[in-house]
Amino acid sequence: MLAYPILLLLAVVGTGGTSTKSSPHASRNADSGVLGLSIDAEINLSRLSNVVAADIARAAHFKSHGQGKKRESRHRGKRQSVAISATNSAVSFTSRVKFGDPATEYTLLIDSGSSNTFVGLKKEYSATNSSHATGKTVSVTYGSGKFSGPEYTDRVDLGNNLVITTQRIAGVNHSSGFDGSFDGILGIGPTDLTQGTVSGSSEEIPTILDNLFAQKTIGAKVIGMSLPPFPSNTPGSITFGGADSSKYKGELAYTNLTKTDPAKDYWGIDQSIRYGDSTILKLTSGIVDSGSTMILLAPDAFNAYKQATGATLDDKTKLLKLPKDQYSKLQPLKFTIGGVDYTLNADAQLFPCSLNKALGGDNDSIYLVVNNLGENSVDGLSFINGYSFMERFYTVYDAANSKIGLATTEYTDSEGNCKA
Ligand SMILES: *[C@@H]1O[C@H](CO)[C@@H](O)[C@H](O)[C@H]1NC(C)=O
Ligand SMILES: *[C@@H]1O[C@H](CO)[C@@H](O)[C@H](O)[C@H]1NC(C)=O
Ligand SMILES: *[C@@H]1O[C@H](CO)[C@@H](O)[C@H](O)[C@H]1NC(C)=O
Ligand SMILES: *[C@@H]1O[C@H](CO)[C@@H](O)[C@H](O)[C@H]1NC(C)=O
Ligand SMILES: *[C@@H]1O[C@H](CO)[C@@H](O)[C@H](O)[C@H]1NC(C)=O
Question: Which top-level group of life is the source organism from (predicted)?
Answer without folding.
Answer: Eukaryota
